[in-house]
Amino acid sequence: MEQLHVTGLRGLPGYSPMQSPAIQSVSEGSAEEEDDEGRTDLAGLLEFLDSLANRGFRLVEINHIANSWALGGLIPMTHHGFVIKTSAQEYFSLDFSRTGIVWDLYGDEPPDMPDNTVFAEMYMINVDPRVVQRYCAETKPFQWLQNDCDTWSRGLLQAIGATSQEREVQHLCGFGGQAQDSSSFCAGSSVETVKPIRIQAQTGRRQRTGDCL
């Protein structure tokens, strides 16, 4: 099997890039855009998703996670993000914040839930990675009340056909707004018609963090 390499898998003790068959190298410059909260290089994310598609891998599971946080330590908010599993048995995360799309790679174990998780919904899916790639590529800049983590996450679920009919968390970051138009992203995706699975926090290599800053 071809040996693949990736930069930016920080904080994973004992991790070897050869353990990850789905992950191809991303640009060296993208590593400079990492911090402790994740990667912010959109080009690297798009390249990663393209690499998955080129190698025939699919997205097979998406976990929609919401956690509470406080703006300025005072104003209660809720942040939405995702942990996604590929058919190569690899996990990566996607979040949307004022810095843009934040993503990270976790190898073959999912991350821990963030502190103050209020719900997690898991969908079993069968989606072409390029559906998510196109959605991310056309994401508009973050804007409170109009295009925040809530509207962005709803748009992504719509894009892959995994829309939840009810949203249990009403105290949302940005307090609502219209989901990003996803009508052009749905080709090539399919979702099993199953009710979202509520899951508990599970042990992973490190914790996923999330807020809108």
From TrEMBL:
<feature type="compositionally biased region" description="Polar residues">
    <location>
        <begin position="17"/>
        <end position="26"/>
    </location>
</feature>
<feature type="region of interest" description="Disordered">
    <location>
        <begin position="11"/>
        <end position="38"/>
    </location>
</feature>
<protein>
    <submittedName>
        <fullName>Uncharacterized protein</fullName>
    </submittedName>
</protein>
